[in-house]
Amino acid sequence: MKNIKGRVHLLGDNINTDLNCSSKYLPGKDNAYIAQHAFEQVAPGFASRFRPGDVIVAGRNFGINSSREQAVHILRLMGVAAIIAQSFGRQFFRNTINNGLPAVECDIAGIADGDEITIDLAAGKVAVAARNINRTVAALPPAVQSILAAGGLIAFLQKHPDWKIA
Q: Is the pTM here over 0.90, yes or no?
């Protein structure tokens, strides 16, 4: 898997899935409309500043409180290249992998909004060169890297219908 490079959009702790995929728009609004309002409750104008290929960096408990897979679909629609957080809600983390969106747990101290960040999933490295930040994180297992490279679990299984867990 290639390195991911993008501009940081910094969010705080306890960012639940209702903040990027607000239930106030459900039902009746499509994902494109909802994406235009992602995170507006905690970062007004977030969606208008975000560009495809950018990276979300957040504190503890990103994606808590919901198993709503649509939350990840919204992030993919926005063009989020990856999410780095101190910790994730477990269901949300699994939904990111299933939908081909890299998510990495990492100490975010010193990383600022607008920084250019590089993520090497295979080596387990996160770096912000301008701030001399070089962090080692748990490398994602090869099977997870393969799922991400394929674009998600369904795409992976379509390419590898006979795949078995080793």
A: yes
